[in-house]
Amino acid sequence: MRTVYVNGEYLPEDQAKVSIFDRGFLMADGVYEVTSVLDGKLIDFDGHTARLHRSLSELDMANPVTDAELLEIHRSLVAKNAIEEGLVYLQVTRGSSGDRDFVFPDPKTTPSSIVLFTQSKPGLAFGPAAAKGIRVVSIPDQRWGRRDIKTVQLLYPSMGKMMAKAAGVDDAWMIEDGMVTEGTSNNAYIVKGNTIITRHLGHEILSGITRTAVLRFAREAQMQVEERSFSIAEAQGADEAFITSATTFVMPVVEIDGKPVATGAPGSVATRLREIYIEESRKVAI
Ligand code: PMP
Description:
Strand 7 (134-140), helix 5 and strand 8 (171-176) form a beta-alpha-beta unit. The chain folds into two domains: 3-120, D-amino Acid Aminotransferase, Chain A, domain 1 (2-Layer Sandwich); 128-284, D-amino Acid Aminotransferase, subunit A, domain 2 (D-amino Acid Aminotransferase, Chain A, domain 2), CATH 3.20.10.10. By secondary structure, the protein is of the alpha+beta class. The chain has helices spanning 23-27, 45-58, 67-80, 129-132, 155-166, 209-220, 232-236, 268-283; strands at residues 3-6, 9-12, 30-38, 41-42, 86-93, 113-120, 134-140, 171-176, 179-183, 187-192, 195-198, 224-227, 240-245, 249-256, 259-260. The radius of gyration is 19 Å and the shape is globular. It is built from eight helices and 15 strands. The strands form two sheets. Strands 7, 8, 9, 10, 11, 12, 13, 14 and 15 form a nine-stranded mixed sheet that branches. It has a six-stranded antiparallel sheet with strand order 2-1-6-5-3-4. Helix 6 packs across helix 8. The longest helix is centred in the C-terminal third of the chain and has 16 residues, at 268-283.
């Protein structure tokens, strides 16, 4: 049984509880982060902490812990649950005022609630998926207008994964005004020659922590980076496509809406970027 963390306590998972009035439960009034673990160490912890601060501040939500405490909790959970490869999930919600009300409760009397738990995922770095690549379908992007905030409103992304499953593929890319925004839980990229193309940041997509790192590594490896939107037709005609996220790292996309991307096999740029990302991230993991 896992040991989890809830509001100051480490508990067996079946004893950890939050109120039925918690605003995360009633209103999806919460934010989250997912940090991956390789060799029992946290990948890009500082990036995830920085984005957590931003999400909280955009929603006027109080931060229940200091950064030092946050690191300590992450490390304790990794140790207590003996995680070698996997992830730490962190969620902060606006807590419970003991009733349901649309108006935000006063943070002085209603503290934010914080929950963390681990998931063990052996083979995260060298699983078979990366060698095969994944297949995606396009779906309309029907999420809210502040996708740059990492909220727990994941109903539409869940529906998107179900649409992908129903279509017999691995994931979905979302489309707005004819252009790809991002994957259901990842950022989307195409490659043309020596150029990597991925949507520019804005309220329409989440600024991925993996995206920031991968674009830096790409530039360091003398690749060109173009931050602009692209369509499904452009992606289908590209040399390569891939996604990034904290738990998939860099994952080749080999088919889009039933059409193979180039030869239909993982491309060399995505494969190389995956190697660089995993190698460099491991070196500086904490
Ligand atoms: N976009 C969305 C919608 C996501 O849910 C995620 C993963 N949380 C990402 C992009 C990738 O972000 P990161 O690289 O920080 O995991």
